[in-house]
Design a protein that fits this description.
Elements: E1 7-8, H1 11-18, E2 24-28, E3 35-39, E4 42-46, E5 49-57, E6 70-83, E7 92-107, H2 110-124, H3 134-137, E8 140-155
Antiparallel strand pairs: 1-8, 2-3, 2-6, 4-5, 5-8, 6-7, 7-8
Protein name: Pyridoxamine 5'-phosphate oxidase family protein
Organism: Miniphocaeibacter halophilus
Length: 156
C-alpha cells in the first residue's frame, strides 16, 4: 500500500469498516471484461475468519459467475465526506475502504441460511424478526464469501 499511514490493520478494525458499508461490489473474471455485481451484504467474524453474506433470486445472469468455489474480488467503501480546499486541486475526500479476495459457497442448511440472513438484516437495521417464512426461503439463494485476503484504508 502506497500510503501506509492510511492502512487499517487488525480484523476488528476491518470488521468495523465492513459494518459501516451498505454495498459490497463483487468482481468476477469474464472473457473480455470483468463482471461486477453490487449487492447488499452482512458480515461476521467467526473463529478469527471474516465472512460476508449475500443473497439473490433463484436465477439470473450472475449465476454464470456465482457457484461453489468461485473466486471473487470485492470492494466496500463508506464514510465519504468532501474536504473543500482553496483551489480545485486542494480538495480531498474522507473515506474508509476495504479491498479483498475470497471464495464463494452456497449455503443450504437452514441454521446457516438464517444466520446469514440475520447478518444481512443487522447490517441495515436493528428492528427485524429473526423468523423466516419457509416459502420465502425457497425463493432465494444464500451465499457466503470466505475472505482469503483483505486490506483496509482509512482517511478519516
Amino acid at each position: 500500500m502506497r500510503r501506509s499511514d492510511r492502512e487499517v490493520t487488525g480484523l476488528n478494525n476491518i470488521l468495523s469498516i465492513a459494518k459501516n458499508g451498505d454495498t459490497i461490489i463483487l468482481a468476477f473474471n469474464d472473457k473480455d471484461f470483468p463482471y461486477i455485481l453490487p449487492v447488499n451484504y452482512g458480515c461476521e467474524l467467526k473463529d478469527n475468519n471474516l465472512y460476508f453474506y449475500f443473497h439473490g433470486a433463484l436465477e439470473g445472469n450472475k449465476y454464470k459467475y456465482i457457484y461453489n468455489g468461485a473466486r471473487v474480488s470485492f470492494e466496500i467503501d463508506c464514510n465519504h465526506k468532501l474536504v473543500t480546499g482553496k483551489s480545485n486541486c486542494s480538495f480531498s475526500m474522507k473515506y474508509e475502504s476495504l479491498i479483498g479476495r475470497g471464495i464463494i459457497y452456497e449455503i443450504k442448511e437452514y441454521e446457516e441460511v438464517t444466520n446469514a440472513l440475520n447478518c444481512i438484516m443487522k447490517q441495515y437495521t436493528d428492528s427485524y424478526s429473526r423468523q423466516y417464512d419457509e416459502g420465502s426461503l425457497k425463493k432465494v439463494k444464500v451465499f457466503k464469501i470466505e475472505v482469503i485476503s483483505i486490506t483496509g484504508k482509512s482517511n478519516i
